[in-house]
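Record minuted for completeness.

…
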Amino acid sequence: MSFLRRIAVPYAITILVVYLIWKVMAILLSRNVLPCPEDAVLAFFRALMTSEFWHHFAASTFRAVTAMVIGWAVAFPLGILMGSSRQFDKFLSPFVTMTYPIPKVVLLPVVLLLFGLGDFSKIIIISLILGYQVLVATRDGVRGIHPKHLDSIRSLGASKWQLFWEGYLPAALPHGFTALRLNSGVSVAVLFFVESFATTEGLGYLIMDAWGQMDFNAMFVGIFGMSLLGVILNEGSNFLEKISCPWH
């Protein structure tokens, strides 16, 4: 019952609203431009029965999940260090301030030159975008700890490790996971961009290939796949946040 109330019902209502808007637009526009939602949905369910769709879905999932893991694993400890150490923050803040506003996708040609056309360069770009968000959110979360809370832990004779474990980590985790969850949609958007060229597998490639062939039903199969992947990443991050931060 809780699952239905929290996940199934909101998604069902959203799908119904999108369907109605899409249906009206399909009636007003030519079917050559926008297919009927029934045709696109039927094509999607047919694609779910094929190994080709799951091959592209698995390739995109691997890139997105690997990038999220690498981005979080690097940025989260750095965020704690910057939030808890003035010296470390003073050293690293200028670099973050200067590079954070740069749209990371513009670095794709440089990353491709350095790391080639394979999966690694695509994962690096997604990791950079996610990593900065996690880094800034985690640093701000640690900075937001009230000094009295840390003083109370120190007054009990806590070591540096205990101060980290009992003070900084509980304050940083919710911010790190929230940044990861909020940016799961961003990772899917960037995934489409990096998969739209220099590859022959992935949902982004599937969308662009179908678009080039004017096969709009197949194009929406890829779009639905991207939406499904985004939901899985978002709910997965939400689940990790809940089991890692039961106090939040």
Q: What stands out?
A: The CA atoms of residues 22 and 159 lie 59 Å apart. The chain has a mean pLDDT of 83. The radius of gyration is 22 Å.
